[in-house]
């Protein structure tokens, strides 16, 4: 039997790798991929707590989490494609329309 | 034996997710992300969440990753600047990530004495009739309102994606 802590440590590792990716990457699609990594890490810790506490609700939360991740990916990629079509760029540093 | 499986799947997940961040080409990053999702699904199976493992592979590795691949195909790959793909503050970002990992590790390696463990979920689920049955019953009774809200979120996402990605010529 693996203790809860090790699942949480793996989840923290995945989360921090995703966080570093979000901070480091310049390409906006790569930033989205690393966001998916972070959501995945959160799902892992929810399921680990669900197993530890003997409570199924963590898995229900994970289903809603996956739903929101799918919606986020759809809308975000639509925004990226329309930005690319209008301005031909995918670099996050170039997205400064709202900066003053 | 179960320790061996846990070590193997978690190592694959961590290494693959690091390859996502360190990948030179964006398609390689997407493929490594699929590897990460598969090994996380294996960890879900070990935690007694078989339905979620199937959902993970179907929705994440099947649908969302394909969506990313289509988006990458629509964007010119030469514009996905492969050379200068790291931010200039990357040392600071790595340091920040390490600090946050240290904090999370300090918290996560404590003993959770304030939580009452009821033992492994798989044993209880067998009494209730299995993982999928329990989740389905809960989703359609106690969580019916969040379930409907999730469907509204998906509807809004579909309409939003169509509105955002529609071409200018057709709108005019």
Describe this structure in words.
The complex is a heterodimer of chains A (100) and B (172). Chain A is 78% helix and 0% strand. Chain A is mostly helical. Chain A has a single domain, classed as Helix Hairpins (Orthogonal Bundle), CATH 1.10.287.3510. Helices cover 76% and strands 0% of the residues of chain B. Chain B is globular. The model of chain B has no long low-confidence stretch (mean pLDDT 83). The chains are: A mainly alpha (100), B mainly alpha (172). At the A-B interface, helix 1, helix 2 and helix 3 of A face helix 1, helix 2, helix 3, helix 4 and helix 5 of B.
Write a concise synopsis of the structure shown.
The complex is a heterodimer of chains A (100) and B (172). Chain A is mainly alpha-helical.
Question: Which short descriptors sum up this protein?
Answer:
heterodimer; A: 100 residues; mainly alpha; Helix Hairpins; B: 172 residues; Four Helix Bundle (Hemerythrin (Met), subunit A); 8 helices; 76% helix; 0% strand; globular
Topology:
The complex is a heterodimer of chains A (100) and B (172).
Chain A: H1 4-24, H2 28-53, H3 57-87
Chain B: H1 2-22, H2 26-46, H3 50-74, H4 90-108, H5 121-128, H6 131-140, H7 144-165, H8 168-171
Order of helices and strands of chain B: HHHHHHHH
**Portion of residues within helices of chain A:** over 70%
Distance between the termini of chain A: 56 Å
Round the mean pLDDT of chain B to the nearest integer and report it: 83
Spans of chain A with pLDDT under 50 lasting ≥5 residues? none
CATH arch. level architecture of chain A? Orthogonal Bundle
What CATH first level of chain A would be assigned? Mainly Alpha
Helix content estimate of chain B = over 70%
- As for the CATH topology of chain A, it is Helix Hairpins
Oligomeric grouping of the chains: heterodimer
């Amino acid at each position: 039997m693996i203790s809860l802590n090790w699942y949480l440590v793996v989840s923290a590792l995945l989360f921090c790798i995703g966080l570093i990716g979000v901070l480091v990457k310049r390409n906006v699609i790569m930033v989205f991929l690393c966001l998916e990594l972070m959501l995945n890490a959160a799902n892992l810790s929810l399921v680990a707590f669900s197993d530890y506490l003997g409570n199924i609700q963590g898995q229900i939360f994970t289903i809603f989490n996956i739903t929101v991740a799918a919606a986020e990916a759809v809308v975000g990629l639509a925004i990226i494609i329309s930005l690319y079509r209008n301005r031909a760029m995918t670099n996050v540093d170039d997205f400064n329309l709202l900066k003053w | 034996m179960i320790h061996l499986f846990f070590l193997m799947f978690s190592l694959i997940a961590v290494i693959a997710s690091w390859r996502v961040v360190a990948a030179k080409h964006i398609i390689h990053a997407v493929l490594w992300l699929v590897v990460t999702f598969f090994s996380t699904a294996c960890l879900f199976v070990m935690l007694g969440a078989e339905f979620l493992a199937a959902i993970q592979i179907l929705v994440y590795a099947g649908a969302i990753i394909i969506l990313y691949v289509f988006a990458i195909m629509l964007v010119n790959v030469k514009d996905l600047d492969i050379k200068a793909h790291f931010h200039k503050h990357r040392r600071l970002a790595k340091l920040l990530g390490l600090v946050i990992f240290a904090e999370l590790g300090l918290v996560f390696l404590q003993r959770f004495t304030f939580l009452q463990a009821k033992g492994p979920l798989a044993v209880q689920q067998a009494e209730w009739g299995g993982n999928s049955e329990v989740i389905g019953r809960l989703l359609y009774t106690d969580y019916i309102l969040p379930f409907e809200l999730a469907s509204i979120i998906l509807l809004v996402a579909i309409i939003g994606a169509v509105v955002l990605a529609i071409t200018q010529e057709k709108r005019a």
